[in-house]
Amino acid sequence: MLESEKKLKFKEEIADAAMSARDAAIKSLRLADMGASRLGERVEELSRHLEESDTREDSRNGSRQRY
């Protein structure tokens, strides 16, 4: 195998590895984004529950402030 063929093969292998790394990074970012989105939804849900609980407690205790 000629030196130029070796260099070309090496460059192709590097390009393949770089594309695989890029694809893995994109997948990882998508998974992280989905996880962050789920966490955001959970925070919103828990905040709603807390507000509802506070509202029920306030109505039972005559609208007195908790803080």
TrEMBL record:
Region of interest (Disordered), ranges: 45-67
UniProt feature, compositional bias: Basic and acidic residues: 45-61
Protein name: Myosin-4-like
